Amino acid sequence: MATIASPGSPTLDAPLRASLDGLRRRIRRYVWVHGLSTVLGCLGVAFWLSLVLDWFFEPSRGLRVLLLLAAVGALAAVAINMVARRLLVRLTDANMAMLLERRFAQLNDTLLTAVSLSTTGNLSEQLVGDDADRKLPTSERERGDRLHGEMLARTAREASRRMGAVRLGDVFSPVPLRRSLSAAVLLLLTIVAFVLLAPNSLGVWARRSLLLSEELWPRQTRLGIEGFDDGVCKVARGADLEIVATADLDMPLVPKTVEVRYRTESGARGRAAMNRQGVAVPGRDRFQQYTYTFEGILSPIDFELAGGDTRLTGLRIEVVESPKIEQLLLRCEYPAYMARSVRVLPVIGPMQIPQGTRLLIAGRANKPLLHVRVDTTMEDLSAKPVLPQPTIDIADRSRFRCALGSLEKDVALFFTLHDTDGIESPQPARVVLAAMADQTPELSVALSGIGTAITPRARLPVVGHVRDDYGIAQVWFEYAADQDKPTREDVAAPEGNLTELPVDNVLEVQDLQLAPGQKFLIGLRASDRYDLDPAPHVGASQRWQLDVVTPEQLRIMLQARELTLRHRFERTVQEVAETGDSLMRMRFGRGRSSTPRASDESGDEPSDAAGAEPEDKSSDSTGREPGDAPEPGPTRSSAESRKRQLAADSLRLERAIQNSRKNGNETLGTAEAFEDIRLQFINNRIDTEELNMRLKSGIADPLRVIAEEMFPELEVRLLALREALDDPQLAPARRDAAKRQLDAILEAMSRVLGRMMEMEDFNEVIKLLQEIIESQENLEKQTRQRHKALLRDVLEDK
Q1: Please, which residues bridge with residue 311 across strands?
Q2: pLDDT confidence of 313, banded at 50, 70, 90?
Q3: CATH number at residue 272
Q4: How many Cβ atoms sit within 10 Å of the Cβ of residue 102?
Q5: Distance (Å, rounded) from C-alpha 560 to C-alpha 555?
Q6: pTM of the complete model
Q7: Is the alpha carbon torsion for 603, 604, 606, 607 positive or negative?
Q8: What residue numbers bound the domain in which 513 lies?
Q9: 548 strand-pairing partners
């Protein structure tokens, strides 16, 4: 409902109103001054803090951005809390009255009551309000308003009277304001002094902290580091890395030491002083160097360098794999004379390549390559070739190839890889290429059935083979009589690249009209298909110098050789007989007994009887050989005697085995010698059917049977005897079996020896025929001389 103010409602007089308004202005001025001084103080603190941090640590751009945002945020928070929020608070008269009442107790709530009544209306309205059900009579309401109005007017007058003694400035505490103002003024003065004294430094700070420039603070020391592009250096895993730092001598300060501070990928930290390299002299040197070596690097390392007033930060060592060759292939284009197709060979160890082969080497590495360097060494350093450097495959940079040209000499190639990470292979890959020179043909031939002398009607068989590494072109005889010019007679010209040719050819001498007394020189020669030089390579066999003799002279020479062979064979027969006698003296560990032993199961004569022992030059008067055990006596034990006898028997058996092998080889040699004699008779065309049969069927063939069948069987029986030597029951039987084989050999040898002796009768017949021929020739000679004398006499008579 509407309220009609009564004429007696209290109002604030002008002094009270002025006091309240003045307090309100003072409060807002205090907030402004205190808040702005606080903001300025924080701004000064932020300036100096950022200056110090940037001066000493020079943080990265990202960190400076964070610091700038943090400073702006802090200043905004201070401004909002200290100024904006306080200025936005509503300061009513009631608030001002309450503040004054709390500060000044002498007001005794009079001011607060007067202010409240002046803002809320008359008393009746406060008591009744808007309640329509509780209505007072108009007379009573008016009477109450008048009473209370008078009371409250008195209260207002009392409040106005008491306010006269109040000082509004006492409401505020000056200490916080003084502190903030002092701090702000002090900080501003220091900033002004810094601006006046170091304007350049202020500019660096502004550009770094406000404009976020990468400009560094001025230094008295300037450090640098070699090999770190963009602060990163890559190193092979497990390798050492020497870092080289430099200090500029043009700067005022050259640090005595530079420190490395590092941190590994696992989090381990460390620091170490770098080694100063000598003492650099200004004017002569540009930099002072410092070195430090990281050894055996296995994981990435982050580090920085600190020296003087300078630090180099953000340095990093990254670990990568070393480049290495995983595969090398060699493409070989062989010379035309070899008639070989192009081959691709894997490089495994030293490579033997035919001389003149054109080579191209291709490789594959384990990672992309930047380039490959090839160095070479040769036996002849003065002839060191200039090799083309390998090319990298654009599509796959891990592959490379290099054309080496024609291989003429041995060469060792060293491939050094440089990958895209800037890493060089720690050890060059070594490839050894051995230039295999074309070999001259090798002739392994011999005259078959020809000795040192031939007849003018001889035929010269040459057997063997010719070998060449890449192909035989021609084979020919080369011969000459006395000092005549050598003559060539072609033997073979195989087609294709035949590397081995069997030779079984004959040179007929009777067509050369040789005369007895001449010297005949013969050899075999062969050429290959080598065409890199003007002339092919020619190989030669042994050159045989042969004496040309008459058939009678050659026959006598061969007979003398046959006689020598017979004497040698007789010694072999004697040795075989002595071996059998030695075997029969074996007693198999028993002492000599005066009672003859009974015959064994084979029916042979008792071999151990004293009366049956054959005489031997090596035995003494008691029938013992050297090494036989002496007769057992009363002072020698039976066991020791058996031991000595076993040792003697073992020695005798070993000697028999060795003699068996030796006699077998000698017998085979004799058979081959007689076969050679027979062939010489045939090749010199002085043979007869009877002579041929005697030498082949009567001597050479039986000797081969003896050497190749009978002696090996004897050795088998002797070895069986060795196994049973200490068995008294089994040894005698095996000894007797060996003795029977020896007897069979002796019997066969005796038959052959008899055929050898037939030569004496045959030679006597030949000698008689030779005498008859010589007599006939003498008679013819005398007859011709007589005819010439008669003819001379007849002519003289005329």
Answers
A1: 306
A2: confident
A3: 2.60.40.10
A4: 11
A5: 9
A6: 0.54
A7: negative
A8: 442-549
A9: 454
